[in-house]
Design a protein that fits this description.
9-stranded mixed β-sheet; alpha+beta; globular; 394 residues; FAD/NAD(P)-binding domain
Length: 394
């Protein structure tokens, strides 16, 4: 089967790219080891996983024509409030400071996947191959041939890896990565708090790791989504606690900023690792999203960076095609890499600095941290820059 582009991985990132490209008249094959058209189980871990979409990501979902449905379920936030348990001056970023009504919206990953089913089914230029797993790749002058474990073969000019952190395509292509463990676990759950979330994304930095409380009204009985990153030793302690003890510890660590807390879902946890591909492409193969980069969730930027990859690659491929160029050529893929590598590495570095800065017990590090908080809070130009970064406005 021939197509111009084959995308491996039908998660939010891969499906979004496939829909955008097919909307431009490009013939796309989308393969996935599962079936994205099967209804997701609402009791699964995925159903409670939330993402904080910035304005740039929302604009991209509008182009795919799914945001009008998602907006009804999404919880907008107009403020980000950050404070430090060690006593640094708190920071707050307001949408009104950049003349916007909101900075972004919180929604479950599951709802985005459900909304993507409609354009996946509707597009006549999109060939979805479910329950199909990549096995081998062979590159020639005209394109790349993909062989799958079920015996199917696909030929295209460009092969895109959107198959996540453990990307099979990245491994088969020989693209190397830099990776290490944060020696932390993230705990996620749905909560009900006494106090209103006030359309605010709350985040406290503690010596044992950051805690985010995101406004979330899209899960029944829940008003806040928890993302709690904890050092491994402390994480082991948290894992051994009863639900009542876990919530008591959470109330203490968050200084009851949202009052008493009820746990409304199961608490799920996963290890935190950092990964960045040394190159975003090899011959006729390119990576997007977590297949190219994965970072600490403390700023909730993983999905947003992935969707920015999608927007950039879509733009570069469409422009090259209109100019009659080979969309799988190194020159086209290099332009994509240049547009995304520096922003992604910058965000990764910033998150690493934040993490190390707040974990440090060194008095000079604490002094620098306090001065940095004060400088950002008082400097209107710098503060607006931070707010625009958080909202995905460049």
């Amino acid at each position: 089967m021939d197509s111009e582009v084959t995308v491996v991985g039908a998660g939010v990132i891969g499906s979004s790219l496939a829909c955008l490209l097919s909307n431009q008249g490009i013939k796309v094959t989308l393969i996935d080891r599962g079936n994205p058209l099967v209804k997701h189980n609402n009791s699964s871990k995925e159903s409670a996983r939330t993402v904080a979409l910035n304005l740039s990501s929302i604009d991209l979902l509008k182009k795919i024509d799914i945001w009008s449905d998602l907006e009804k379920a999404a919880t907008p936030f107009e403020r980000i409030y950050v404070w430090d348990s060690k006593g640094s001056s708190p920071l707050q970023f307001l949408a009104q400071d950049i003349h916007k009504e909101e900075l972004g919206c919180v929604i479950t990953n599951d709802l985005i996947l459900e909304s993507l089913k409609k354009p996946l089914k509707k597009s006549k230029r999109l060939n979805l191959q479910a329950d199909t797993e990549l096995s081998k790749i062979k590159i020639n002058e005209k394109g790349v041939v993909i062989t799958c474990t079920n015996g199917k073969k696909f030929h295209s000019k460009l092969l895109v890896g959107a198959d996540g952190v453990t990307s099979t395509l990245r491994s088969l292509s020989g693209i190397k990565t830099r990776t290490w463990s944060y020696n932390q676990k993230a705990f996620v759950a749905g909560l009900k708090t006494d106090k209103s979330h006030l359309q605010t994304a709350w985040q406290i930095f503690t010596p044992k790791g950051p805690i985010a409380l995101l406004p979330c009204d899209c899960i029944e009985g829940v008003n806040v989504s928890l993302i709690w990153s904890a050092e491994n030793d402390y994480a082991n302690k948290l894992s051994s606690l009863t639900k009542k003890e876990f919530i008591k510890e959470l109330e203490t660590k968050t200084e009851l900023i949202l009052g008493k807390i009820d746990l409304k879902t199961e608490v799920n946890s996963f290890p935190l690792n950092q990964l960045h591909a040394k190159s975003y492409f090899s011959e006729r193969i390119v990576l997007v999203g977590d297949a190219a980069h994965a970072l600490h969730p403390l700023a909730g930027q993983g999905m947003n960076l992935g969707l920015s990859d999608v927007a950039s690659l879509n733009s570069k491929v469409v422009k090259a095609r209109r100019a009659g160029l080979d969309i799988g050529s190194n020159s086209v893929l290099k332009r994509y890499e240049r547009s995304r590598k520096i922003p992604n590495l910058t965000m990764t570095t910033l998150m690493e600095l934040f993490k190390k800065g707040f974990e440090s017990s060194d008095p000079w590090a604490r002094l620098f941290r306090n001065l940095a908080f004060q400088n950002v809070s008082r400097n209107k130009i710098l503060k607006r820059k931070f707010i625009k970064e958080a909202a995905g406005i460049t």
